[in-house]
Specification:
Length: 309
């Protein structure tokens, strides 16, 4: 039985790492595409050399031609300028808008039946833009952010409490950026909410480390931004889709009144499956949590208005 075909747009750190993860986990054959001549071809060849060692079944093709991406089940867009020290995600808005618009148009022409998973920052705005440009149903276009933010929350809780991340189910909603909303009441350690395990001052510490987790990585690297955890977040999402499972993941999805929010893409727990976004079930939030989530949505809406979307 042939493997599914996944196109990864952007052969930078996130895209190339994701491609290699998909191969190693034997989830799909991969097409790695980039505008830079030789870059995707060279990285693909390096991965195929590794294939002779690890003996994974899938293959990867590096290309600059969207014709090679035809028939993809999923298109993952990582292309765009990375965040540099001192930059916010909103600083990337103008530059990455033109990139995402061009990528969606070309990839959709080659694979009109594909799902589109967006990774490019600012994530929530770029996901909305991709949906608008594509003209696809909103359940076929979604973004990665919540899985990554929840992983960072899980790490912060694990380090602070000295427990294994395997015992933690963390939930972060809202914008993928400084306006994200970590939810201690919905995040569990061995089945108990974090809000019942930590005093308010400790909760504030782990929340702060989560919100600025990406900036912490950027500051340490000095050049470039996170790529292992973002790539792993996408691979985790794709495993749910390609495995035919219906898995609830905090994902950047289109809201149509849930939590009192309309016409915005942002991260909330959603069931992701073969058809894309298959269900959004609302959590029971306190009035304070709901207000924070709605404020986060408004920050995204402001950016959308600035783009004329």
């Amino acid at each position: 039985m042939p493997l599914p075909k996944v196109t990864v747009v952007g052969a930078g750190q996130v895209g190339a790492t994701l491609a290699f993860m998909l191969l190693g986990r034997e989830l799909a054959d991969v097409v790695l595409i980039d505008v830079a001549e030789g870059l995707p071809q060279g990285k693909a060849l390096d991965m195929m050399h590794a294939r002779s060692i690890d003996r994974f079944a899938p293959s990867v093709l590096g290309t600059n031609d969207y014709a090679d991406t035809a028939g993809s089940e999923i298109v993952v867009i990582t292309a765009g300028l990375p965040r540099k020290p001192g930059m916010t995600r909103d600083d990337l808005l103008a530059a990455n808008t033109s990139i995402v618009r061009s990528v969606v148009e070309q990839a959709l022409q080659a694979s009109p039946e594909a799902l589109f998973l967006i990774v490019t920052n600012p994530l929530d705005v770029m996901t909305y833009l991709a949906w608008k440009v594509s003209g696809l149903p909103h359940d076929r276009v979604f973004g990665m952010g919540g899985v990554l933010d929840s992983a960072r929350f899980s790490h912060a809780i694990a380090e602070h409490m000295g427990v294994s991340p395997a015992s933690i189910e963390a939930v972060v909603c809202g914008a993928h950026g400084d306006a994200m909303v970590p939810l201690p009441s919905q995040s569990l350690v061995a089945g108990t909410p974090v809000s019942e395990l930590l005093p308010p001052e400790d909760i504030a510490k782990v929340v702060n480390r989560t919100v600025y987790g990406g900036a912490e990585v950027v500051g340490l690297l000095k050049s470039g931004s996170a790529f292992y955890a973002p790539a792993a977040s996408v691979a985790h999402t794709l495993a749910a889709i390609l495995g035919g499972k219906r898995v609830q993941l905090p994902s950047c999805v289109y809201l149509t009144g849930q939590y009192g929010i309309n016409d915005v893409y942002m991260s909330v727990p959603a069931v992701i499956g073969r058809g894309g976004v298959e269900e959004i079930s609302e959590m029971e939030l306190s009035s304070e949590e709901l207000a924070m989530l709605q404020a986060s949505a408004e920050s995204i809406a402001e950016s959308l208005r600035a783009l004329g979307l």
